[in-house]
Design goal:
Two copies of one chain form a homodimer.
Chain A: H1 3-12, H2 23-30, H3 34-47, E1 50-52, E2 59-61, H4 64-75, H5 77-93, E3 96-103, E4 106-113, E5 128-130, H6 135-141, H7 146-152, H8 168-181, E6 184-187, E7 194-203, E8 208-217, H9 223-243
Antiparallel strand pairs in A: 1-2, 3-4, 3-8, 4-5, 6-7, 7-8
Chain A binds a DNA duplex (30 and 30 nucleotides) through residues 1-3, 6, 22-24, 32-36, 38-40, 42, 57, 258-259.
Amino acid sequence: MTILHSASEVLRCFSDERPELTLTDIVALRGAPKSSTSRLLNAMRDAGFLDVSKVGRKYRPAPLLTHLAHINKVDVSLLARADAAVRELVEETGHTGYVSALDHKDVIALAGHEGRHILRVATAVGRRLHASASATGRALLSRMEDRTIHSLYEKGMEVPSDKAPRSVAELIERLNLVRQKGYSEAYDETNHGVGALATVVVDPVKNLALSLCIAFPAATITQQDKDHIIARMIGVTAKLARHFNDQGQPITDTTRTRKSPTGEQQP
Amino acid sequence: MTILHSASEVLRCFSDERPELTLTDIVALRGAPKSSTSRLLNAMRDAGFLDVSKVGRKYRPAPLLTHLAHINKVDVSLLARADAAVRELVEETGHTGYVSALDHKDVIALAGHEGRHILRVATAVGRRLHASASATGRALLSRMEDRTIHSLYEKGMEVPSDKAPRSVAELIERLNLVRQKGYSEAYDETNHGVGALATVVVDPVKNLALSLCIAFPAATITQQDKDHIIARMIGVTAKLARHFNDQGQPITDTTRTRKSPTGEQQP
DNA sequence: CCGTTTGTTCCATAAAATGGAACTGAAGTT
DNA sequence: AACTTCAGTTCCATTTTATGGAACAAACGG
């Protein structure tokens, strides 16, 4: 494994709940030896990935990463269009909307718009959720082949809530439902009292999959509201798909491209 | 040099103007051998730092980085307060305002608010500017010791505009002015027609320096407007400084902390 | 002042990065 | 089709860097 993997592992240790971490924290979270971790963190700081606080030697992500997040936004025209579509849906329904992308087994919100109802779901661009346990995550996963899903979760799957899928088999069952219906849904999975509906669109040229998601208070929504949201979401998503010539191809595996794969069988 | 330095060098190649890069682009920009760069880019993709487009093999920053940018925002309470202060100034003056931090020889905008005048400076959170050639950059640099400035620019200084400092000596001269007056200014340096005023505040605990900046169309501003903005900026900055117990200490060098330095002389 | 906690450095070993050259594959060109 | 270019990858011997256990150093808390 290259040191880059370790670095990315370290970066993934940070979250809203743990925005600052000490050497000891990271050792505990990753289980790697203290000496190696110490050197790694210092190297990451020297390279501009982390900043360190003076007292307590607490590490946090450096501004460089804000810069790169910005580039990501500037670049991707699918994101711009998906964002516009979500904004439209938010204005129409009053519920909060997101655009998200996959990062390994997680989804990360890239853009969001807050609804206007008094009781509404907050936006949190940059937030990370378990892909298997969210509407938006399952929408994205539904565009991967089953064997890719299997290899993604071969080291186990976290089950953050009662209603989340408990096993890969259960996940794939639910992904099949998503594939069939064209949208995905989740209630009370990652967030208590929150319901969500999500669709997915792929830019085959950039090899980028994005999910559109509308989130609402699960208790106050009627079946009629839901049906309306679903119809509109499927509509705008189909429009995006046409524009980017998304014809339902599965997302290409993120791992090595050319290297002859171990046990792959392609006609 | 560790591979992390190379990785961070690669990430710094991306900009608003070049949001996607191919292997060849990066080879041209960095001058490193093609074979090494090829392996490096693939490793960075495998680690989740980069995504690759299917056609043209173009690399772009991955969503992981959006996540980290978000953490950075959640965490830092100085940022939250500085952002609130800038918002106040923006509302009062109608001009665009930023909060920025240093990343090596660049400044990166971490938060921004757009003004309400018809002719106004656009916000661009995540944007990267040359520190030496911007008001906000020089405000931040003014809190470093001169020898740190020298070592920062020992490999040369880019001069993006006529009005920007041409040498380290000239830069330090202007930093002395900033230190004396308590604010920094720039006209027509990085952006044509744009003037900017900036102050700086340091959280000594987190070892974080942030700059507050107000940017305006240089042609339409009066001396009176400017004086008013400066007075208000210095006011809110002083308030922040008191809150964080910033007593004008120089920013600690970003490089190794404990390792006995080569030629350092401290009484 | 001494135990405790937290982070760094040492060092021999193991692993990974390097860069020149050869190779592959995909476009163009004649 | 054969030829040329160009972009990207892989090979391989060499150099460089990472690793982890243990010793060391510094800060903390009585």
